[in-house]
């Protein structure tokens, strides 16, 4: 029987995600992508600059240029300041903590190592003392043996020491000392001398040491002077049948005295160098350790000192449990003195390897600081763009406002302190825009009125002199034609001066006006005036300020040519100095001006316009009027320059913009 189960189908699960959540996720993703792209762009731009500098500059200049770029970024970029400052702070914290940890750890580790090393040194000294006491037992067996004493005394008392007698004594001593050779495997050789220093007997376990030389015996005998039967230790190099020809040994020598303290011989034992080296393995198994064993006379008995080892003299002078600097390395020195034999064991341990191992802690802290600094920099960069976004918008608006765009307004998206700054900026920009418009319109009206008044001014003396000249010619009944020309020139001057300031005026118009003025002045001077006028092609139709040349020419007649008896020469030249710069020069051969006079005239050009507002009223239409009008309309770099020397004439150069006049009117 088969059972069938029918299951109802499950309805599909409907995952409904709020639209607001989706929108926020999309905006957050786009924001992160935008910030990442901005960061990559900054890094790429800085890398390109560095690559360009590295190709084109030497190493020193390249480093200086990188420092300059970094300094500029630090000065001009607030985000960079935050990243650099906080990164430096994090790095300093990690460096300080790493250094403190490294220092504390090194101090604790060094202290513990020093304690253990000092304890090991004491234990090694105890083993050395135990070995020396065993040697005393062995040598006491020899020294106080009656048969050995009898053999040595007998050999010293014989009148003739034959070979047979020496051989008998040798065999008997060998039999007596054979046990010593067996018990002491590190004993290289043993020598027994009588009081005469002759008839020596020796025993050689290793078979590599040859009989003791007279020089070595004499040295050992001298070292025994002052001793009272105790063992005198000495590190020696004796002759050997080895390939090197010598062997390093440790000699242990003592006077042979009986119980009545009677001297009957000298005992010399030569031990293998490894006698103490084997006991000091715990101290010397490290490559950075060195030991020195001294006797009670501070003579070196044993040392593992190599040619490249520490300075032996420095080790001997170092105090106990002290860290000294030897060869640029920190060395810990420990001293231990045995109780019975008064031997001194000096051990030196280099702490440099421990310092190098401990630096790993500092390196870990340094690397952790670098990684943390990098992560913190990224976090600061991303969050900084969010926090400083309104500030950057405010700065951009201020730049536009500084550039003259007074209609600039910024969009405010926050409600914090930066929002208050944004509202204040918008209000300030609106107030500035309103004030600028008001001031501009008022200044415009004032300038037009002032220019009209300046243009309408005429020198009453010039008008009086001209009419007087015409009257005299008519009264005398001569030069009717010349008088008529004067009337026409004067009427032309008046008509030109009375025209509206808005009338379009060109260089040609000004030249024709000046020619009328020169005709009138020539009639007054007589035949002593020579005039040269030159206008370059294409300059005639350029617009200029109305009545701008008459004060310059008038200055020549009023000041330069006054009281002159020679020919008066006047030159007028108009040309383009640059495609957009018009120059008009008026020069004469008059009496000229001193440097102080020129500076007094041009001083107006350096002052503000409102300070010079009363200048035309004090001096009438003149050079100050020209300077005033050019400043009102154009400002720097346009104006008037004067070159003059006493008795050498004057050249006045008027620099104006070479404009077509289509964009606005010139008055």
Automatic annotation (TrEMBL):
Organism of derivation: Paenibacillus whitsoniae
Record-linked CDD domains: HAMP (cd06225), PDC1_HK_sensor (cd18773)
Listed InterPro entries: Bact_2-comp_sensor_kinase, HAMP_dom, HATPase_C_sf, HATPase_dom, Sig_transdc_His_kin-like_C, Sig_transdc_His_kin_internal
Source taxonomy: Bacteria, Bacillati, Bacillota, Bacilli, Bacillales
EC assignment: 2.7.13.3
Positions of transmembrane segments: 82-105
PROSITE patterns noted in UniProt: HAMP (PS50885)
Protein name as catalogued: histidine kinase
The entry's keywords: Cell membrane, Kinase, Membrane, Phosphoprotein, Transferase, Transmembrane, Transmembrane helix, Two-component regulatory system
Localisation per UniProt entry: Cell membrane
Molecular functions per Gene Ontology: phosphorelay sensor kinase activity
Bilayer topology annotation: Multi-pass membrane protein
Enzymatic reactions: ATP + protein L-histidine = ADP + protein N-phospho-L-histidine
């Amino acid at each position: 029987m088969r059972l069938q189960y029918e299951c109802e189908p499950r309805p599909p699960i409907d995952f409904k995600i709020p639209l607001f959540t989706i929108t926020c996720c999309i905006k957050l993703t786009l924001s992160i992508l935008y910030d990442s792209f901005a960061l990559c762009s900054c890094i790429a731009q800085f890398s390109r600059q560095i690559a360009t500098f590295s190709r084109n500059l030497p190493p020193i200049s390249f480093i200086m240029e990188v420092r300059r770029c970094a300094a500029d970024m630090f000065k001009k970029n607030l985000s960079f300041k935050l990243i650099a400052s906080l990164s430096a702070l994090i790095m300093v914290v990690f460096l300080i903590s790493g250094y403190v940890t490294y220092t504390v750890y090194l101090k604790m580790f060094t202290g513990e190592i020093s304690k253990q090393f000092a304890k090991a040194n004491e234990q090694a000294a105890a083993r050395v003392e135990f070995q020396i006491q065993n040697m005393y037992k062995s040598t006491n067996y020899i020294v106080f043996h009656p048969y050995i004493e009898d053999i040595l005394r007998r050999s010293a008392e014989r009148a003739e020491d034959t070979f047979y007698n020496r051989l008998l004594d040798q065999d008997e001593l060998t039999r007596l000392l054979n046990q010593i050779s067996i018990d002491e495997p590190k004993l290289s050789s043993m020598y027994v001398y009588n009081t005469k220093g002759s008839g020596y007997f020796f025993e050689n376990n290793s078979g590599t040491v040859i009989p003791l030389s007279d020089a070595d015996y004499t040295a050992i005998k001298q070292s025994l002077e002052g001793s009272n039967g105790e063992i005198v230790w000495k590190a020696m190099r004796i002759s050997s049948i080895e390939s090197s020809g010598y062997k390093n040994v440790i000699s242990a020598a003592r006077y042979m005295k009986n119980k009545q303290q009677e001297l009957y011989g000298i005992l010399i034992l030569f031990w293998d160098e490894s006698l103490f080296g084997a006991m000091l393995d715990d101290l010397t198994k490290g490559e950075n350790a060195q030991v020195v064993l001294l006797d009670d006379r501070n003579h070196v008995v044993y040392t593992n000192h190599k040619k490249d080892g520490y300075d032996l003299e420095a080790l001997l002078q170092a105090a106990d449990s002290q860290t000294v600097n030897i060869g640029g390395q920190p060395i810990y020195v420990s001293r231990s003195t045995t109780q019975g034999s008064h031997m001194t064991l000096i051990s030196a341990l280099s702490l440099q390897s421990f310092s190098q191992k401990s630096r790993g802690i500092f390196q870990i802290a340094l690397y952790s600081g670098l990684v943390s600094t990098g992560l913190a920099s990224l976090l600061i960069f991303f969050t900084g763009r969010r926090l400083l976004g309104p500030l950057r918008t405010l700065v951009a608006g201020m730049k536009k406002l500084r550039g003259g765009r007074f209609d600039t307004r910024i969009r405010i998206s926050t409600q914090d302190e930066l929002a208050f700054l944004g509202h204040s900026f918008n209000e300030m920009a609106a107030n500035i825009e309103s004030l600028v418009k008001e001031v501009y319109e008022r200044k415009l009206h004032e300038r037009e009125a002032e220019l009209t008044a300046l243009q309408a001014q005429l020198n009453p003396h010039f008008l009086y002199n001209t009419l007087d000249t015409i009257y005299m010619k008519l009264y005398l009944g001569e030069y009717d034609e010349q008088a008529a020309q004067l009337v026409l020139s004067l009427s032309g001057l008046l008509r030109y001066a009375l025209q509206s300031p808005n009338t379009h005026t060109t260089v040609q118009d000004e030249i024709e006006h000046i020619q009328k003025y020169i005709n009138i002045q020539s009639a007054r001077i007589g035949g002593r005036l020579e005039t040269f006028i030159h206008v370059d092609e294409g300059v005639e139709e350029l617009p200029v300020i109305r009545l701008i040349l008459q004060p310059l020419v008038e200055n020549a007649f009023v000041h330069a040519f006054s009281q002159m008896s020679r020919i008066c020469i006047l030159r007028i030249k108009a040309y383009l100095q640059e495609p957009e710069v018009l120059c008009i020069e008026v020069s004469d051969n008059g009496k000229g001006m001193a440097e102080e006079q020129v500076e007094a005239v041009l001083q107006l050009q350096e002052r503000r316009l409102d300070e010079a507002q009363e200048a035309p009223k004090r001096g009438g239409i003149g050079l100050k009027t020209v300077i005033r009008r050019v400043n009102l309309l154009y400002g720097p770099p346009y104006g008037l320059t004067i070159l003059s020397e006493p008795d050498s004439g004057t050249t006045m150069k008027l620099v104006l913009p070479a404009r077509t006049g289509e964009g606005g009117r010139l008055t």
